[in-house]
Structures are given as structure tokens and as C-alpha cells.
Amino acid sequence: MLPPGLGTARSLQAITRRTFPSSRTIQPRYFPRTLSTSNHLRDATPPPINPGKSVEPVPVIVKVKRVGKWRTFLQILGRVTLVTILTTGGLIYYMAWKDRHPGDQIPHDPSKKTIVVLGSGWAAISMLKSLDTQEYNVIVISPRNYFLFTPLLPSVPVGTVDPRSIIQPIRYITRHKARRVLVYEGEALAVDVSAVFAAGPHE
Q: CB within 10 Å: which end of the chain, N or C, has fewer?
């Protein structure tokens, strides 16, 4: 015979199982990752997945637009123009910097021959520009320390040309020589060929 109250306890356990099923039989609901908080999206079930069937990727067709010949020509022309402008600007800057900074000059060498240039006219300046100062010591004696471009002299009074445009200092020419050139502002009064020297009032 069963103890008192045992049948009642089993009956309550059976009723409890029918009313409240075990946690193992509860199926979790699927909550998709979405910004929407609607009830029909929150309570949606996941789509069925067939593990035996492989999903093939869908091919993506990309259409490449062909560039026209005229556009290609303009692109190449623009690049060539940009490179030319940059190269020309760099070359002009280098030439201007080199013109202002010619570098150090070689001092006078007593073992070299000495050439004396009288005046600062056309002949003297042409000779001074073409003279190699590495082979000779050069001395310039002139009453003026500049070179005057006389063909444009009539244009100065009428205001067509600025006076500074037709004058070039001798020091600019001598500064760009390899060896130092001595310049004396004076006039040569006589030349003694036997002694081979030039005499002036400032010597």
C-alpha cells in the first residue's frame, strides 16, 4: 500500500509537466539584426537551411567604359605640359641663382702672363668676355666703370628705354671670370713697350 499523500504528489507532478513544459522543449525565437523594432520582424523565424545543398555565388558583370582617343590625348598633353613648366621653372631658378652666386675666384698668379685692357668700350668688353683668365692675369684700366650700349642711347631722352637698361657694370663681367680681374678707374697716359707695363694716374 502506498504511503499517504504519494498519489497526490505524483498527480501534482504530472499536472505541472503538462502545464509548464521542461526548458529543454522550449525553442528559442529568432531575432534578426535590424534597426526596426516591429513585432513582425522581431518574431520572424529564420529561413530554412539545407546543409546538403551548396550555394553557388552569383557572377558579377562589371562593364568597363572605354576612354576615347581625344581624352587620352588631352591627358598626355596635360602631363607633358606640366612636366615642361616645372622643368623650365627649375632651370630658370637655377640660372638666376648661379648668376648671383658665381663662386670663388682664383687669385693672381705671378707665374702667369699679365694682360692689360685699356678702356671699357666695345673692343675691350668683347675681348674681356672671350678671354680665358685661367691662363692670364688680367688688369682693366678705364675712366668709366661701366659699359654703355651706344645704339640705344637716343632712346633714353624720349623715354623709350630706361638708362639702366643700356648700362652694364664692368664688375658684373669680371665677377664671372675664373680668375680675379683687377679694375682701375683711370686713364692710360703712356705705354712703355720696353718695360711692358701701363702707366696711369692712379698707379
A: N
Amino acid of residue 64:
V
List beta partners, residue 192: 197
Let me know: does 128 contact 174? Beta carbons within 8 Å: yes
Nine-digit cell string for 49: 537551411
Q: Which residues contact 197 (CB under 8 A, 6 or more apart)?
A: 116
The stretch 192-203 carries a mean pLDDT of 55
Are the C-beta atoms of residues 182 and 139 closer than 8 Å to each other? Answer: yes
Per-range mean pLDDT, top range of 16-25, 28-37, 155-164: 155-164
Distances (CA, A) of 168 to 93, 122, 149, 171, 203: 22, 12, 8, 9, 25
Alpha-helical (H) ranges within the chain are 6-19, 39-42, 69-100, 122-130, 170-175
Q: Please, are residues 149 and 166 in contact by the beta-carbon 8 Å criterion?
A: yes
The predicted model scores a pTM of 0.50
Given a contact cutoff of 8 angstroms between Cβ atoms, the answer to whether 126 and 183 are in contact is: no
Cβ contact 199:192 at 8 Å: yes
Mean pLDDT of 12-39: 50
Residue 198 and residue 180 in contact, taking contact as beta carbons nearer than 8 Å? no
- Give burial (CB, 10 Å; 0-12/13-18/19+) of 166: middle
